[in-house]
Amino acid sequence: MSNLSRRAMLAAAVAIPTTAATVALTGGIAHAEYSWGRTLEKGMRGDDVAQLQVRVAGWPGYNNILAIDSDFGPATEAAVSRFQEAYGLSQTGIAGPRTFEKIYSIQSADNTPIHFTYAELNKCNSTYGGGKVSATDAKISARRVMWRLEALRHALGDDPITVSSGFRSEACNNAVDGAPDSQHMYGRAADLTGTHSLCTLAKRARYHGFNVILGPGFTGHSDHVHVDIGSYHQWSAPNCF
Ligand code: ZN
Q: Is 226 an annotated catalytic residue?
C-alpha cells in the first residue's frame, strides 16, 4: 500500500474508530500488513493496543519489560513517549496518525521491523518447527524479539546489528551444545554481533526490553551477546558492567 492511500485510509479511520487490517500483495505472496484504525491512548484496550505494544516494547526504559496485554496503561504510555522521542516526534504518549506513520515506515509487509527478518532470526530451518513450542508461537516470539532489536539498533545510531543465531529446533540446539532449556528453542532469543563492541551491545540492551543479557565475561559468550525475552531475569557480562 502506498503511503498516500495508507494516509487516506488512516484519515478516514480516525473519524470512524475501527481496527483495520489491510492486505498488500508483494511479489504474489499475500501479507497482512497491519495498520491501525483509531488513535490509542491510556485507558483503552484491544488487539490494536497489543499490536502497538509489540512495536514499542523496545522502549520500556532501563530494566523494564512492557507487557503485551492489550491494556494501554502508564507503561505503554511511557513506551510510546520514548518511541516518539527516539524518532523525533512530539512526546504525547498518545499513538495517533503521526506515530502510526512512523511505525509503518519501519515495518515490513509481514509486520517485522525493516532491519530484521524471520530468515535472519532462524538460520536453523525454514519453518520455525521442531522447537519447544509450535512454529506459530516461535514466530510470534521472534517478531517480538525483532522489534526490540530494531529499537536497540536505532538507539545505537542505526548501525547494523547481526543475528548470528535466533530460533533453534531441538536438533539445532543440540548440535551447537545449547543449554537444555535454551530460549532459542522458543524463538525468544538472539545472539548478536555487529558494528559495535559486544560490551556496547550488552550495556545498551539493558534499555530495550530484554530480561536476559549474557555477554563478555560470561562463560561461552566471548564472541557474541545473547539477549532473550524469557520470563526470568539474568544479566551477566562481567567484562562490561
Ligand atoms: Zn544465545
A: no
Class of domain 135-236: alpha beta
Separation CA 64–CA 57 (nearest Å):
9
Residue from 154, 221, 224, 226 carrying the catalytic annotation: 221
> Which are the contacts of 134, defined by CB distance < 8 A and separation ≥ 6?
none
179 alpha carbon to ligand 1 midpoint, in Å? 9
Secondary structure of residue 3 in the 3-state scheme: helix
CATH no., domain 3-105: 1.10.101.10
Going from the Cα of 149 to the center of ligand 1, the distance in angstroms, rounded, reads 14
For the chain, give every domain's residue range. 3-105, 135-236
Tens digit of pLDDT for each residue in 93-144?
999 999 999 999 999 999 999 999 999 999 999 999 999 999 999 999 999 9
Q: What residues have their beta carbon closer than 5 A to ion ligand 1? A: 189, 191, 226
